[in-house]
């Protein structure tokens, strides 16, 4: 009889203990029934001076994907990304938050074959493809169960060099076939590839990659007058340290089948996330126009530097 009574009593005690536990008594593993899922409120592109024009990408479009690096997250392998669909950002997988703040870094573009299994905060960048690489942080860097809504502000990684052409009395059609930034013979200062640190946005260029940065505009002519900076010829280029000697780097323009070159001055420096505007002025018709590549045929002046 005693044994019959003891069994129900033990069952009641155990049942009461199990269901009297509060959240404070549960381990914060991120897998309880009270998990909060990360949500994305907005993803915007940084632009310091909207009135002065933007970069090559001013806002994201449907189908764009942004990779996420979740610092210390014990799931998410392969690493998640978000994609834009009809003004909403959807995650490739749910991300659950605990009460511990979690740091989120973002990068654009996300490429499945390159980024799905990355194991650190370094992302390859380059200027040969003219991709507008970006990075960003969510909510000053952190989200948590108490604040699960992420606003991400993306910043440009490469430098943007743009050219406003001035015709003067130039007698030809003003058709621009190519614009490029080059190393002089024997110079390896301009490097075409590097790694981006998602933690701080720093770019470290890599030895062994010295390709020029170039664009091949389609049906681009001189605008008279220009209505916006979007009409300028624009090149994305890896950041460079100050040019050591006059002419170590040079611009090359192919206009109406003629090649014009212009050497960069000693001390020229292009920083990550900065925009550099140059005026390219054709010499008046009273002077000789030859396809010799001499800078006497063209005049180039830096007119503005700003963030973009």
Folded structure, characterized:
The chain has 308 residues and is mostly beta strands. The chain folds into two domains: 35-156, Fimbrillin-like (Immunoglobulin-like, Sandwich), CATH 2.60.40; 159-191 and 210-307, Immunoglobulin-like, CATH 2.60.40. It is 7% helix and 40% strand. The chain has helices at 2-19, 112-115, and strands at 36-37, 39-45, 65-70, 81-85, 88-91, 96-97, 102-108, 122-126, 134-143, 149-156, 159-166, 175-183, 193-197, 203-205, 213-215, 220-221, 233-237, 249-255, 258-263, 274-282, 298-307. The strands form five sheets. It has a seven-stranded mixed beta sheet with strand order 2-10-9-7-3-4-5, with no helix packed on it. Strands 12, 15, 16, 18 and 19 form a five-stranded antiparallel beta sheet that branches. Strands 17-11-20-21 form a four-stranded mixed beta sheet, with no helix packed on it. The longest helix is centred in the N-terminal third of the chain and has 18 residues, at 2-19. InterPro entries: Mfa-like_1 (IPR025049), Mfa-like_1_N (IPR042278). This is Fimbrillin family protein.
Brief sketch in words of this structure:
This protein is mostly beta strands and 308 residues long. 7% of the residues lie in helices and 40% in strands. The longest helix is centred in the N-terminal third of the chain and has 18 residues, at 2-19.
